[in-house]
Inverse folding.
């Protein structure tokens, strides 16, 4: 069944009123009518809802029931990723949303080839959020993946305390743990994975990361490119989540 | 170190002679000189080799040593995939090569949206093989992923005996095994995963598949699109391979 994420403000008791671009999609792309049912999620809870009125600008729905089934991962997983170019980022956001990732955080790193300011990134954010919304709807999630505004490497270091486990995907270190060891550890509920840009971390960045007691992890014996690594991490996590 | 796959015919005892497009890459892109070393793989074994002569058309090398390290998976894994459109297939071949996949097999299925004949696909094969070669070099593999010619669903069914385990990625069945259960079973050495096209398998195809005692497997609770599913399978396998 078709699924739409809506702002909590659109829901009043058992009644939902939509006036955004989803209405166009429902009316003109899906050709929905009164009495058709859809799944509506307010980003915390999903509902089965029946259309009571629809035209090109507005759709009202009636909540028939709560949907108990929840396809979210049991832990929060954030990917902090060295800034990659726009096309790769869009594709990644699409894939990571499907794979259940909680948040995607782009980080300006020393060897990032792409150059963009925080402000210019903010202008691109609505498009990235739209990709995340559509992929999250498609994969029947209850919660949309957050696409966070661009930060610097220092901002990232200052945010490490927000997580109860921080890992770095590293190839330079011999004492590496596996994703399994991290994800299956019951004391970790909110995990950050740091992944370098195309050219990798700088020495200074890696030193700084390890100074903060970050855990080095391996992504297996083959070298994965920066756009494949986050997908690998989320796929393995998907297979471990119980 | 830069790595190149070469035809076995180019190697005579300890001497390698290249005259293909890699020579241009070595001479003009990498700007290599006499005495520079590269890794050469003949698709079964990798060698450390030193350049003894190089110009725009020809490069000769001397094999200094065998490279013992082998980053291949310990089992053969083939992905049989409902035909997807060209851009998605190219990207997938790139990702699956990096993730250690043995062979990628496109299959014409009932609900395949893309229409192409076997002959037209054959014309595209050299480009797909080039993508696989470059991704396999990049990820330091010893063996290139095979991109196989397009086959029909019936051809696929007739080939199932070539594998000692055949799985189908299914969402319609309640009695599904996990990738872990399959891959960690020591009696399976040569495994086929069948993944449907965008619109999924037809009922007839699924019946036919299950008639052949194929094992249904789950890819987790979220619905993955057809271009994400093979990457998920190979990522999980990468994390299990020991």
């Amino acid at each position: 069944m078709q699924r739409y994420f809506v702002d909590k403000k659109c829901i009043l008791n058992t009644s939902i009123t939509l006036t955004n671009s989803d209405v166009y999609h429902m009316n003109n792309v899906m050709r929905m009518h009164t009495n058709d049912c859809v799944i509506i999620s307010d980003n915390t809870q999903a509902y089965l809802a029946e259309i009571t009125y629809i035209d090109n600008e507005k759709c009202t729905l009636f909540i028939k029931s709560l949907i108990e089934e929840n396809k979210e991962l049991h832990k929060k997983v954030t990917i902090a990723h060295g800034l990659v170019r726009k096309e790769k980022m869009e594709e990644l956001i699409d894939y990571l949303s499907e794979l259940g990732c909680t948040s995607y955080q782009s980080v300006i790193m020393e060897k990032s080839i792409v150059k963009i300011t925080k402000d210019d990134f903010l202008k691109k954010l609505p498009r990235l959020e739209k990709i995340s919304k559509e992929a999250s709807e498609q994969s029947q999630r209850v919660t949309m993946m957050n696409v966070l505004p661009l930060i610097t490497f220092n901002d990232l270091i200052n945010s490490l305390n927000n997580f109860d486990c921080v890992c770095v995907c590293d190839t330079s270190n011999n004492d590496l743990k596996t994703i399994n060891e991290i994800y299956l550890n019951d004391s970790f509920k909110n995990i950050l994975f740091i992944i370098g840009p195309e050219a990798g971390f700088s020495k200074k960045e890696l030193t700084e990361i390890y100074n903060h007691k970050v855990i080095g992890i391996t992504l297996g014996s083959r070298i994965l490119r920066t756009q494949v690594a986050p997908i690998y991490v989320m796929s393995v996590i998907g297979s471990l989540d119980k």
In short: Helices of chain A lie at 21-29, 86-98, 118-138, 153-159, 179-183, 203-211, 229-240. The mean pLDDT of chain A is 93. The interface with chain B takes residues 71, 91, 95, 98-100, 138-141, 178-180, 219-225, 228, 231-232, 235-236, 238-239, 241 of chain A (CB under 8 Å). The longest strand of chain A covers residues 46-54.
